[in-house]
């Protein structure tokens, strides 16, 4: 069995002075300053992370380019696979982000608006470089394609764009299957409903995607501790678990999480 990956993530925005800074929030809102992106990247590289994710959380919504100077500085500090997302709209954006030091790019809004970008990116740079990010929210109506039961109610999961600010009417499972067919090498599943809550990952959402694709799935949003990682691996079938708050605020170390998983027979790289 392949080892499960533990991935810390930083959400980066520009502060009041225009400098890159890491922020942490709940349900994609109420963002609070957390630290310097370059310093945090260095710490996570030394802490034993399997990979590292850098998300420019307002680039798409603000219509600006990804902060590549900061990406380059982060890349100089990490010697594990680096995924960068936010504001990537074209093949040239992918090229420049990889040139800045990223190993993979995470694309959400632009891929939904122009699915051929997935195919073009995979053909030009390899599927392993193309991660499709999905910001999902629950909807309790009859507009979806794939339904799951959440707290006794039937719901489907809608793709959103621009940092969760706009709905699309697109079903997450249907989109995940399409993205895979176009050449996505990985799927990065974020839940707006569980983001920052520390109440656990959105298991119904993650399982719905994992059950319908063969592409590796990164589970994100809601991790409160090692038990939640165990649950998303064993109950939903995720290939990697991403977390932010529990690592940023020293509630658990990456080593703590890996040792817990190893003790519970989940294969990890110690």
TrEMBL record:
Entry's localization field: Cytoplasm
CDD domains given in the database record: HisF (cd04731)
UniProt EC number: 4.3.2.10
Chain segments annotated as coiled-coil in the UniProt record: none
Pathway this chain belongs to: Amino-acid biosynthesis; L-histidine biosynthesis; L-histidine from 5-phospho-alpha-D-ribose 1-diphosphate: step 5/9
GO molecular function list: imidazoleglycerol-phosphate synthase activity; lyase activity
One annotated GO biological process: L-histidine biosynthetic process
Enzyme kind, highest EC tier: lyase
UniProt GO cellular component terms: cytoplasm
Catalytic machinery residues: 11, 135
Record keywords, A-Z: Amino-acid biosynthesis, Cytoplasm, Histidine biosynthesis, Lyase
Superkingdom as given in the UniProt entry: Archaea
Catalytic activity: 5-[(5-phospho-1-deoxy-D-ribulos-1-ylimino)methylamino]-1-(5-phospho-beta-D-ribosyl)imidazole-4-carboxamide + L-glutamine = D-erythro-1-(imidazol-4-yl)glycerol 3-phosphate + 5-amino-1-(5-phospho-beta-D-ribosyl)imidazole-4-carboxamide + L-glutamate + H(+)
Function: IGPS catalyzes the conversion of PRFAR and glutamine to IGP, AICAR and glutamate. The HisF subunit catalyzes the cyclization activity that produces IGP and AICAR from PRFAR using the ammonia provided by the HisH subunit.
Subunit comment: Heterodimer of HisH and HisF.
Family note: Belongs to the HisA/HisF family.
Protein name according to UniProt: Imidazole glycerol phosphate synthase subunit HisF
